[in-house]
Each structure stands twice: as structure tokens, then as C-alpha cells.
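Morning - zinc ion inputs below, output right after.
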Amino acid sequence: MKSQSIEELYGMELAGFIKISKDKDALLVVDIQNDFLPGGALAVTDGDQIIPGVNILAAKFHQIESPIIFTQDWHPADHSSFASTHPGKNPYDLYEAPGIGPVLWPDHCVQGSPGANIAPGLQTANATLILRKGFHKSIDSYSAFLENDKTTETGLRTFLEAVGIERVFICGLALDYCVYYTAIDAKKQFEAVVVLDLTKPVNSPEDSVSNAFKDMVNNQVLFVTSDQILE
Ligand code: VGL
Ligand code: ZN
């Protein structure tokens, strides 16, 4: 059975076929961790469905010897993004503070916990770099490049620049948070391409996906499906 196409799901215009180049294109696999999968603390609906396709896409980048970077959300147990650290607050309550928001989260991806592990089905043997983010207690990091203060660098920008990368392909979880913010920050220095069939949203608050797409389109982020990426 053919599943619903991504054009039908999101209505985004696709960039078409793109041939990837050795050492100029990098793949970012964002936060595919147990806590973001069905049954996890901050479960993303169908988050597990993207894993086989991510493995296939990563194999294409590995084939041409281009870097593959996995990220891990990696929070201390008392992280300020957790509702549990704010008396009287519940997960998904709206909450804005510097570096935190627009909602509070259930406790998730606590450093060293099973939920923070990369999903066992994901093949990481070919990883060039596994980057952890969100480890500062009072500031979140949705983006793999910049923490939510929009100033503190994770080091990923400098890494990609040092190895000569010009374009990044972004997949993983979640579309409306870490994938979205990663794409916006990537585009400041590199071409940024989001792989629409290999990402799924949290959908909280309810306009998070439409806002993310609006902002990505305004920033000239490109969209493809994984079958359009050719080695
Ligand atoms: C994420 C919410 C909180 C994500 C991480 O990976 O998209 N979302 N922490
Ligand atoms: Zn988080």
C-alpha cells in the first residue's frame, strides 16, 4: 500500500532531485532517541516509522564518504525545560522564559538514562560525529547549531566549516522543534535541505508545524523526499 505522499501531508513544494557530493554535503540525523519514539517520555507519533528510511539515506552519504552527524538531546535531570522543575506546571503548558519555551516538556532525554539513548534500530556505525546538546540547565537547545539564547554555539557550525561542508540535509525528530531550528540556523551559513518523509512533528502548541514551515520557507530552506537524494 502506498502511504500518503508528503506533498499531501504538508503541501510543501519539493526541490526535486539533488545529487550529493563527497565532502560538500553532510547528513544531520536529529534526536532519534528512545524518549521521542512511541512509548517514550516525549513520544512523537510515528517517530519510529522514519528509522528504516534514515538508515537507507545514511548509507548513501556513507557510500560517498560524506559526514553523517547524529545529535542527542542530553538534559540534566533538573533541566529548566521540564514542567517538573516548575511547581504547579504540567507538560505542554505554555511557558516563555529566556532560552525556554514556548511550552514546557515532560522529563525527557535525561543524561545517561535509557530514554536518552539513540534508538536501537538506527545504524550509527557510520557516524562521523555524535553531538550532544541541551546540557546547560537553564537553557534549551532545539537547534543543533545554537542554543536557545541564539548565541551559545554547540560547535557544529565550526566542525562543518572546517571539513568544507556547503550543504546539510536534515532529518529526524521533531519537525517542529529540533529539525526546524536546526534548519534555520544551518541556512545562516550553508544550504539547508529538510527531508520531509524522514521527520515527524510533536504538534504542540497546535500551530507549531505551520509556523515552522512558514519560517523555513521565508528563510529559503529547501524540501525534498529521501528518494530524490541521489549519490
Ligand atoms: C525536542 C522538544 C524538547 C526535539 C527536544 O528534539 O525536537 N523537542 N526537546
Ligand atoms: Zn529536549
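Note: The first helix runs from residue 6 to 10.

O.
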